[in-house]
Amino acid sequence: MSRKRDKPYFSRHVPASASGWKRRRPMPPHPEPEPELDKPTYKLPPPPALVITGLPPDCSVLDLKSRFEIYGAISRIRIDRDAVGYVTYRATDSAEAAIAASLDPSFGITLDSKRLQVLWATDPLAQWRKGVGVGAENRDSSNGSSSNSNLLRAEVPLRRHGRGNKLASAIVNPRVAAADGSSVLDVPAKAREIGRAESIVVMEENEEGKIVKHEEEEEEEEGRQQDIWSWGAGTDGQLGTGRLQDELLPQLLHLTSLSSAGPISFLACGGAHVLALTSGGKVLTWGRGTSGQLGHSDTVNSPHPKLVMSLNNYFITHVSAGWNHSGFVSDTGALFTCGDGTFGQLGHGDYRLHCDPVEVSFFASKHVEQIACGMRHSLVLLRGGSGDEVYGFGSGKRGQLGIAKDKINLVSLPERSCGFEGVKIASITANGDHSAALSADGHLYTWGRGFGGTLSAQTPQRLPTSFCFTKIALGWNHALVLTGGEVFMFGGNHHGVLSNPDKMTPVKHSADSREVVLEKVPGLEGSRTLHIAAGAEHSAIVTENGVLKTWGWGEHGQLGLGNISDQTSPQELSLSHKFQKEAGLIEIYCGSGFTIAIRTSCPPSQAG
Amino acid sequence: MSYDDVEIEDMEWNNELQAYTYPCPCGDLFQITKEDLKLGEEIARCPSCSLYITVVYNVEDFLDKKSNKPIEPSKQQPITVA
């Protein structure tokens, strides 16, 4: 979670001129000078920190994380010994979405079918629970005004017991610092780095202590055992095994370049390449590089993970891999793209390929939150002062850009997608010629190529259903959606029968040929699903019990079942018998014809 | 059964392969050469798997006109065929 970046944040923007600040998030009005810390103030904008109660007794931090990260990027999470959870999001919107979801009368937020109570950390009820005066610990921070200038307000102490006993946490809000540009430069470099890296640091009573505490967090992170498994099509090196061959069974990757880079927090798998984002904001890539999509300054394949050096000066928070192109978002809201630009999908206003990530200048004065790369197009999610905005660029022949009612061949500069005015967007997704967005309140919008024989949609269409969706995964002809722990599929009429067309079910049409038909995925009863992923023609899910299941097209071993058969229903898959019984959390990612699983096992202290 | 029907204008000319190509879900490329197209072949195959697509095009566009190449594909732009 909390990790320092190795290089100063501003190394690319030095000197910190006006342009150095332009990427900052929109600034709220400058808050009052630091109020008296010994009495709680509720007037300041609340930090996006939540207190979760009602957790199951055996709930681990990873369980909590996987349940709450669907509402947005989490910067900090922990559970104290009273089974009270603390989740701090990077963005207030995410926290609001989590609160809203928890209040939904029909679903709420549950873990192990226990309904959770979610409160703002600033909520008097949450503070009363802890029985601790807010900010008391920070009063005597005597290390001078430098860190105080970053200190917005103190938070409920994170732990009353154990390691965090004597510590109080404080929100270091970059917006506050940004509002007073001169003062942030006075902050010692180290503190500034930490603040930018995570927005949140844990503070002790003095500056020394802050650093010590921070490093403890790092150790905790690295104490987790993470192993990475890959299987399926591998002839371009996309499995990271170093061998250029398909693998029918999960292969454990033994890679020093991966382990030395720190834990992987997120993967993006494209046509035949992989982008791995570390929790320290670094990016490693491997697989097909013939269009420059690996960002290694060349156009060759890489069978081993390699660090994207040109992004080293940035803290990358989000990545996406398309068929042959890649997108990277930094914590400053800058977007970089590289790879094939034939259809304008890099957004640079031309149709060239770039073999190093190049900043998309269109977004230079805007704050990019997410990138989603499809086969030949890209979507961008912006958080703006006037609400969320989605942009599209690249091929638009199937309507996948959503930028106009008329058919658009291609655009090489971002254009705003229609139909999201006033909608809070939680996430965007693209694959094949499909595009999708999930709103913070659980509505699903799709545009682009139709599913299962339905017509293409030139503009985003909200799925007319009462379901509250929490995740979506797009393939080339199908989509998986997750709602209340259940998985539904649409467009899957030839999912799992590609090599045996006789078994193909007739296309199901509803009265309106634009309307998709949601079908519940069979064979998943009895266990809630936590993660879903879709390759071009295969699917994978992970249940809350850590069971991994795959189905769909299997010709390249992408189902990991040891054969090349197709499967029409989810089949359980074991990474390794040796690890089967160990506690751990599996996250699953699919590229076009391959699959990668990351298994994180908790150290004993966290497992239960 | 054909995986998909793809118009020739949606395929990309690949100089290295000397073929029109389209992404295959396995990660490789469906391919068809100009010679195939001149012969009226409409199936583009993927060298790595069993899938194939049906290419939608006019044979006339690929027949020799005074031995000139009918189309001069550009390296950067997607192929467009009249």
Low-pLDDT residue intervals, each spanning 5 or more residues of chain B: 66-70
Helix content of chain A: 10-25%
Briefly note the CATH topology name of the domain at 5-58 in chain B: Microbial ribonuclease fold
CATH class of the domain at 9-222 in chain A: Alpha Beta
Shape of chain A: globular
- Class from helix and strand fractions of chain B: mainly beta
The CATH topology of the domain at 9-222 in chain A: Alpha-Beta Plaits
Largest sheet of chain A: 4 strands, antiparallel
Helix content of chain B: under 10%
Task: Categorize the overall geometry of chain B.
Answer: globular
Count of helical segments of chain A?
A: 11
- In round numbers, the mean pLDDT of chain B is 85
Largest sheet of chain B: 3 strands, mixed
Report on this structure.
Chain B: Keywords: Iron, Metal-binding. Chain B: One of its GO terms (cellular component) is cytosol. The complex is a heterodimer of chains A (608) and B (82). Helix content of chain A is 14%, strand content 34%. By secondary structure, chain A is an alpha+beta fold. Residues 1-44 and 129-222 of chain A have low confidence and may be disordered. With 82 residues, chain B is mainly β. Chain B has a domain at 5-58: Microbial ribonuclease fold, CATH 3.10.660.10. Residues 66-70 of chain B have low confidence and may be disordered. At the A-B interface, loops of A face loops of B.
Protein topology:
The complex is a heterodimer of chains A (608) and B (82).
Chain A: H1 18-21, E1 49-53, H2 61-68, E2 74-79, E3 85-89, H3 92-103, E4 110-111, E5 114-115, E6 117-120, H4 124-130, H5 145-148, E7 151-154, E8 168-172, H6 174-179, H7 181-186, H8 189-198, E9 200-203, H9 207-223, E10 225-232, E11 247-252, H10 256-260, E12 264-269, E13 273-278, E14 283-287, E15 302-307, E16 316-321, E17 325-330, E18 335-339, E19 354-359, E20 368-373, E21 377-384, E22 387-395, E23 410-416, E24 425-431, E25 434-439, E26 444-448, E27 457-462, E28 471-474, E29 479-483, E30 486-490, E31 519-520, E32 529-534, E33 538-543, E34 548-552, E35 567-573, E36 585-590, E37 594-601, H11 604-607
Antiparallel strand pairs in A: 1-3, 1-6, 2-3, 4-5, 7-8, 8-9, 10-11, 10-37, 12-13, 13-14, 14-15, 16-17, 17-18, 18-19, 20-21, 21-22, 22-23, 24-25, 25-26, 26-27, 28-29, 29-30, 30-31, 32-33, 33-34, 34-35, 36-37
Chain B: E1 5-7, E2 12-14, E3 19-23, E4 29-32, H1 34-38, E5 43-45, E6 52-56
Parallel strand pairs in B: 1-6
Antiparallel strand pairs in B: 2-3, 3-4, 5-6
